[in-house]
Amino acid sequence: xxxxxxxxxxxxxxxxxxxxxxxxxxxxxxxxxxxxxxxxxxxxxxxxxxxxxxxxxxxxxxxxxxxxxxxxxxxxxxxxxxxxxxxxxxxxxxxxxxxxxxxxxxxxxxxxxxxxxxxxxxxxxxxxxxxxxxxxxxxxxxxxxxxxxxxxxxxxxxxxxxxxxxxxxxxxxxxxxxxxxxxxxxxxxxxxxxxxxxxxxxxxxxxxxxxxxxxxxxxxxxxxxxxxxxxxxxxxxxxxxxxxxxxxxxxxxxxxxxxxxxxxxxxxxxxxxxxxxxxxxxxxxxxxxxxxxxxxxxxxxxxxxxxxxxxxxxxxxxxxxxxxxxxxxxxxxxxxxxxxxxxxxxxxxxxxxx
Amino acid sequence: xxxxxxxxxxxxxxxxxxxxxxxxxxxxxxxxxxxxxxxxxxxxxxxxxxxxxxxxxxxxxxxxxxxxxxxxxxxxxxxxxxxxxxxxxxxxxxxxxxxxxxxxxxxxxxxxxxxxxxxxxxxxxxxxxxxxxxxxxxxxxxxxxxxxxxxxxxxxxxxxxxxxxxxxxxxxxxxxxxxxxxxxxxxxxxxxxxxxxxxxxxxxxxxxxxxxxxxxxxxxxxxxxxxxxxxxxxxxxxxxxxxxxxxxxxxxxxxxxxxxxxxxxxxxxxxxxxxxxxxxxxxxxxxxxxxxxxxxxxxxxxxxxxxxxxxxxxxxxxxxxxxxxxxxxxxxxxxxxxxxxxxxxxxxxxxxxx
Lengths: 354, 354
Description:
Two copies of one chain form a homodimer. By secondary structure, the first copy, chain A, is α/β, with parallel strands linked by helices. Chain A has helices at residues 6-15, 36-42, 47-52, 54-68, 81-85, 106-110, 117-120, 122-135, 148-157, 165-173, 175-198, 216-233, 254-257, 273-279, 298-312, 331-342; strands at 72-74, 91-93, 96-98, 140-146, 203-207, 243-246, 264-266, 284-289, 317-321. Chain A has a single domain (7-342), classed as TIM Barrel. In chain A, 47% of the residues lie in helices and 11% in strands. Chain A has a seven-stranded parallel beta sheet. The radius of gyration of chain A is 19 Å and the shape is globular.
């Protein structure tokens, strides 16, 4: 898994804070509905079927690679795939995922099982091996998993939530059950990510999307120990696959996130990266263009992307969006985003000699 | 409207940063479903009917006052009431408000009208006059309105949203339409709040709940000028009704919020008030207990409320939640919250002489 080409090496070097020619770049949820070729595949198959079909899932993972040549290629899947493998019922509808039997008590936790990813989700390994073969070092292959707090939120709330009232009530009134659940999910995340690394993932991202709902004290009590346990549990090989942690709305949590053991903090669009850098000076950063800009104009995307790069000077920075790309994103804006990272000289006054 | 009792005076003094015996306290959305007496009233009438019935609306506004004696009594209404008065169709369902004909173009804006609150929403004035009479200075009477960005989000998105993709796309691709809409909404908010103040409101709050989705640059471009215009437009009488501005997820916006002309910044639960104070040292603060704590235990509520008060030392601080109270909140936790603000000596080691 040693990177054999500039792109994969650039990605890994940036994650570890080593010098690079320019920041690597990819987009969260880059295999998705904004791409006509993705919608074409999805016309004939359900979301879950797509996740579980290695050839199709590898194909949609590679679609953005062929179109935009990002420096990272994430495999197509869903953060609830491991939840389903644990034995929870998961339904994917148009309004997002729904868990018809939400977890509410200790006995519900007991019914969930840790599993061997090479058996229960062998299709994910197959997708990653196919991508690694096709990409051939021209980009880093990326694995991912939901972080324990975010997976627990889905399980306990039964889907998305505005207030996270049910899991917060459990935290206050039945802490043992929530602790048991988070420990189990941390072990599952470690198992899943270790298997992904063994299957070809060169870096992995833990999505703790919803941990930003917690204040720093509650984050340190619940989400942080669980994500730290997951990271510690990853069998990090000699190549040391870097671990990226993402939280949406992480502005109040940067210092705490930095204690998770992650190599890279993935920052949402609201926190300037220069502020994140000051508060977590020893770690690489990922992010953080507001994905909504990709609904706008290429000119503005170029401008805001250049401003984002100026926040870090391009050092120890994996250029990305601050959240997943939105379905209505315009292809010319996506191109402008990649171009702005790859050819900053073309932006603004770059043609004027210094 | 000069405050004639300690409670109303305490509220206004804290808003202006004057010395108080203890911080005043109330709760956002304190007239609501967590109260059995509210559910009793709501059993027989629809939400909209309740908003428009002065006697019933005054009654539910006073319910939390009778039970908990907060220092502020906010009148019962909904932030979409002015939107409906402008001529937009608004439906209130169990899943939140829905606007079946979302605003998408300049011609949609033209169809919305500024209105005279003393005619179109005269019921709000009647509610406020009733409350002012009943409360008789034993608490400050509070008015409120949605801030322009948040009202525009409802109008353009057609209801709640996760990504705010439609309004952000409008900002990028049709800025003139959005500017016109925000100006109109700023004038409407000023009209509405001026009428509320004339009807007995002693302080008013602008809810810019969703402005936290914007990064600081976009906030300064869109939401801040509009809320500033609304505040400047309020006919602030000799008593100078203080203006409170609330944003959910305001951590990255405190400095900008402080430039709005508001007297009080209402901070969500994620940002420690000591940090907010450092970043906006000249303004009073409101907040900021995580409302989810009221689903938990009274002991923990007392502990976290004491910690919140320690963040400001009780100076220039209106104690409140960091967001609206949740429907499943426990009455014993609400009592613990009010008690912890009113009688801090009873908490922890307060009985030990200094």
